[in-house]
Design brief:
about 400 residues; single chain; about 25% strand; five-stranded parallel β-sheet; alpha/beta; globular; seven-stranded mixed β-sheet
């Protein structure tokens, strides 16, 4: 690795929700702090709204802004991708050939969508009735498919955990079913929700309410059924099924519409790094979010190796923890910030209805509002659709959240 061409006090890898929110929050505490963000993208996306785009409830254009417009004033933007790390020399190598030094490093590049782990999927995604709201370029195609659907077999899939926004694969199934119900097409639809796991949601309190939603729409729920291949032209999906006795078999079935949630993992350059744990995620203390070997390194967001739900709500709770602990480390005082594992999943069960699931580590419920969290509510729909996007752009990314 070459000698660094520049160096920064705080170097943040990733210009998504976590990276931008943290950079802004740090500068709110210390305007003179030297902060740089590494990110190669031109466009910043509000990912939590992509399910709504796919369900015809939100404009795709409203989810996007120029990355340059969200980079906080005073932050150096290194418009390239991180590719490798020299932890001993505290240097990051970039895809454009530059090497950048740091005193403190924050890793928050998100995760990667492993489309290629499903045979045939990359070749047919975005056509032949195959779509995914996990790709911002295809969420609008999901809505096109829902409108064009006149009946037949609609399959929605969920891969093995962990994935970002674990509720997203089922939320679009509910929005589709609700839309077809209103168009008198539900009786003509064979809706399949096939998931690799053996539970519809990880938090027990929300399992029964979600099973009631599944029953209401007549959705066929298939556990331990993982999508492994797609033949788009023939409209065939192949699944690996694990039976109750542990035996594994494959099954191929036709579809008219296929919504895929892809397998997901830490970015390859993180897996290869000295900061990764056994699963490829960044090893951190689950409370302080500090690396156990390199104390000058922190991680937050989807890439952090913590046992919480990977959601924007988790990032919002992690930002002040990393900010406060970084500043404490710079002053050589005890790290006082502690992340509790908070995450939230607004489970969209119909157009106009949401179950707001909030929880901490070990599945402990953590409601923000004094309500029964397990009920579908119109108020939580407006919270999800109207308030949260506004809060995201004007508060979270501005370091105020």
């Amino acid at each position: 690795m070459s000698s660094p061409s520049s160096s920064h006090r705080v170097l943040i890898v990733g210009g998504g929700t976590a990276g931008i929110g943290l950079a802004a929050s740090l500068l709110r505490r210390d305007r003179a702090l030297d902060v740089a963000v590494i990110d190669p993208t031109d466009t910043h996306c509000y990912q939590p709204a992509l399910t709504l785009v796919g369900g015809g409830c939100y404009s795709a254009a409203k989810t996007r802004r120029d990355e340059a417009a969200v980079i906080p004033s005073g932050v150096t933007w290194l418009k390239s991708a991180a590719t490798a790390f020299d932890a001993e020399r505290r240097v990051v190598e970039l895809a454009d050939g530059r090497s950048v030094g740091y005193e403190y490093l924050v890793l928050c590049p998100g995760l990667q969508l492993d489309w290629g782990k499903i045979q045939g999927l990359p070749e047919t995604l975005g056509k032949n009735g195959v779509t995914s709201n996990y790709d911002r370029t295809h969420a609008a195609y999901t809505w096109e498919l829902l409108q064009a659907f006149k009946g037949g077999r609609a399959i929605f899939t969920q891969p093995p955990m962990p994935i970002k926004c674990p509720g997203a694969p089922q939320k679009i199934a509910y929005l589709a079913a609700d839309y077809w119900r209103k168009r008198k097409l539900l009786s003509k639809a064979q809706i399949q929700f096939s998931l690799a796991g053996d539970k519809i949601f990880s938090i027990d309190a929300f399992v029964r309410p979600l099973l009631d939603v599944v029953k209401r729409y007549g959705i066929n729920l298939n556990y331990r059924k993982n999508l492994i291949a797609v033949d788009g032209e023939r409209r065939l999906a192949t699944f690996q099924i694990t039976d109750a006795d542990g035996s594994v078999r494959e099954e191929t079935e036709p579809f008219d519409l296929l919504h895929v949630a892809p397998p997901q993992s830490a970015p390859d350059f993180i897996k290869r790094s000295p900061f990764a744990n056994g699963g490829g995620w960044v090893a951190v203390d689950q409370a302080t979010l500090q690396h156990p070997v390199y104390p000058e390194v922190f991680a937050l967001g989807d890439v952090a190796g913590t046992p919480n739900s990977k959601t924007a709500a988790a990032v919002r709770s992690q930002i002040p923890v990393v900010r406060d602990n970084l500043l404490a480390l710079m002053k050589n005082v005890r790290l006082g910030g502690a992340y509790t594992g908070y995450g939230a999943c607004p489970l969209t069960t119909a157009r106009g209805r949401v179950i707001l699931a909030e929880f901490r580590y070990q599945g402990v419920l953590a409601p923000t509002f004094p309500i029964d969290q397990t009920r579908e509510r119109r108020s939580m729909w407006h919270f999800k659709k109207d308030f949260l996007p506004w809060f995201y752009w004007h508060y979270l990314l501005k370091g105020r959240g």
